[in-house]
Amino acid sequence: MAEAKAKKPNFFKKIGKFFSNIISEMKKVTWPSAKTTLNHTGAVAVIVLIAAVVIVLLDLAFGGALDLLIGLIAG
């Protein structure tokens, strides 16, 4: 039993290997430039704003249609 325990990798060695693998992989990453990141962030912000406007307009249209339908049924 002592031999099986001695062959097991140490818990802290596993953690050390995990983080060294992370560092190794992060060195392989091609990071975008600040200009590219700013352009992509701006594009995302514009798309989110357009989507928000579309959702608000659809909500107003469907809400108005629903109010009109309820008015016709009730009265």
Describe the structure.
- It is a single chain.
- The chain has 75 residues and is mainly α.
- The protein has one domain.
- It is built from 3 helices and no strands.
- The protein starts with a helix and ends with a helix.
Keywords, separated by commas or semicolons:
75 residues, elongated
Total count of domains: 1
Distance between the termini: 86 Å
The run of helices and strands is HHH
Biggest sheet overview: none
Which secondary structure elements does this structure contain, and how are they paired or packed?
Layout: H1 2-7, H2 11-28, H3 34-74
Q: What's the short story on this structure?
A:
The protein has 75 residues and is mainly α.
